[in-house]
Design a protein that fits this description.
Radius of gyration: 24 Å
CATH class of the largest domain: Mainly Alpha
CATH topology of the largest domain: Vanadium-containing Chloroperoxidase, domain 2
Order of helices and strands: HHHHHHHHHHHHEEHH
Strand content: under 5%
Number of helices: 14
Oligomer: single chain
Shape: elongated
Distance between the termini: 46 Å
Number of domains: 2
Structural class: mainly alpha
């Protein structure tokens, strides 16, 4: 009998065994899948901008932990983030699949962050995790699958425990009474501005009653959703943004991710309140009013494009992470590079919200709508709704500059197209750099009539400082030259 059939049989048996003992290259598509999922989660939950930024940051860190905890040569997160003193690590002599570790960690963290989420959202998250895990499990041995999932679960649990110490839990349900006095913020937008006028059983489209909310253009596709069905009062972790109330007044007391404190980057005091012509705040308000009276079509488009209201989009944090997601394929990043980019950018965004909100609710500066109606024109309305929190500093300017700074450090000052809001009827916008996009995002709030120029300018400076601090604390380098990452294939 010939030995050849037996040799072929032996090869047929051994090849799958050898193949499954190897760990295939993780896919960067896995990172974009999760970021797209999270964008949809934050949008569907109508999470406020600060809450959305926290979800993005912990989720990105959980994904990246699959890489950092299995490869010590990559940028590390333990000891870099505040109070993150340890995480489980890969054991010597064992093989792990970073992608399976990342997915298992992500699942645990999102189970905690989204435990009050809508059932359909939790099911969608579980389905994505199941499908990606199942596809990946076919490419590795059962032992690697088991060990990888175990490491991911223990890492995820450690991240959840770390998250519970950031102060967020203690602010849930805490009552807030805004200070009263001249020049202090008050939410004086009419309640009807956000009241549902018609609800379609098919689309749940809500048409706001104030024509200013639509720039009197009738183009409801750009303002499709302000408010949806209310959530139960028992929901504390994921409350829907309340545009007629106040948004996260104690957010500035949360522990930052990497900043030493909310005031790690100092900001000057805003212009003093004065109702007299010629004083700085009065003249800034006059400028906002005059700009609003003669907005060009392009300026109206910019105001709407960057509005990023809860429920319409995944808030400003989601917008900037969407830009980052587009860069993964364009710059051909590896999975580890993509997850690191999302971690750095989401950290900059989250810490920018902590800092901006700390300044907002410690200074409680009046909004342009209130000031202008008190001193110049009692009928004046801004082009877009005024958000339910104080003016100084501009949150959009702060978080946009922080995100742009993080992306610039990682990817350079590169031209790009932003297609984030194409689904809302907007055309993609072209920018020469991330910094240019951040400048436009900040300027959009002046076109919208909801910020003074000083709030925009100082917000941008604050965001730039935060980006620099994050780069220093996390030891961020250009991905093109960062030798800690293997060259992508």
């Amino acid at each position: 009998m010939s030995k050849r059939p037996n040799q072929l049989l032996l090869i047929a048996i051994l090849v799958p065994t050898f193949a499954c003992s190897r760990v295939p290259e993780p896919s960067p598509r896995m990172v974009t899948q999760w970021m797209h999922m999270l964008y949809g989660v934050v949008r569907a939950e109508r999470a406020s901008p600060p809450v959305g930024s926290r979800i993005f940051a912990y989720a990105a860190i959980a994904l990246y932990s699959g890489f950092s905890q299995t490869d010590s040569t990559l940028p590390q997160i333990v000891g870099r983030f505040n109070a993150l003193d340890s995480l489980p690590r890969a054991r010597a002599g064992k093989k792990y699949d970073p992608e399976l570790v990342a997915i298992s960690s992500e699942r645990i963290v999102l189970d905690s962050l989204l435990d009050e989420s809508l059932p359909t959202i939790r099911a969608a998250v579980a389905h994505l995790a199941d499908s990606v895990e199942a596809a990946r499990a076919k490419q590795v041995s059962p032992a690697i699958e088991t060990d990888s999932k175990s490491l991911g679960r223990s890492t995820g649990l450690a991240i959840v425990a770390w998250a519970h110490g950031d102060g967020f839990d203690s602010t849930r349900g805490r009552q807030y009474v805004a200070p009263v006095g001249d020049g202090l913020w008050v939410n004086d937008d009419p309640a009807t501005l956000y009241a549902a006028q018609s609800i379609s059983g098919a689309s749940q489209l809500i048409v706001p009653s104030n024509p200013a909310n639509q720039i009197r253009s009738g183009a409801t596709d750009t303002r499709t959703l302000i408010l949806d069905r209310p959530k139960p009062g028992s929901v504390k972790k994921l409350p829907a943004a309340n545009m007629a109330g106040v948004t996260e007044p104690y957010w500035g007391y949360n522990r930052p991710f990497a900043l030493k404190g909310w005031n790690d980057c100092p900001a000057p005091l805003p212009p003093a309140y004065a109702r007299t012509s010629g004083t700085p705040l009065y003249e800034e308000a006059r400028q906002v009013m005059e700009i609003g009276k003669k907005l060009t079509p392009e300026e109206k488009e910019i105001a709407l494009y960057w509005a990023d209201n809860p429920g319409e989009t995944a808030t400003p944090a989601g917008h900037w992470l969407s830009i980052g997601s587009q860069m993964i394929e364009e710059r051909r990043l590896s999975a580890a590079q993509a997850a690191w980019m999302m971690t750095v950018t989401s950290t900059a965004l989250a810490d920018a919200f902590v800092a901006a909100w700390a300044y907002k609710f410690r200074l409680n500066l009046i909004r342009p709508r209130t000031f202008i109606r008190q001193t110049m024109d009692p009928t004046w309305e801004p082009a877009i709704p005024t958000p339910p929190f104080p003016e100084y500093l501009s949150g959009h300017s702060t978080v946009s500059a922080a995100a742009a700074g993080a992306l610039t450090t990682l990817l350079g000052a590169t031209p790009f197209n932003d297609s984030t809001n194409v689904s809302l009827g907007h055309a993609a916008r072209r920018f020469n750099s991330f910094g240019d996009a951040a400048v436009e995002a900040g300027q959009s709030r002046i076109y919208g009539g909801i910020h003074f120029p000083s709030g925009n300018l100082e917000g941008r400076r604050l965001g730039e400082c935060i980006a620099s601090r994050i780069a220093d604390r996390l030891r961020v380098q250009s991905l093109q030259s960062d030798a800690r990452f293997p060259k992508s294939k």
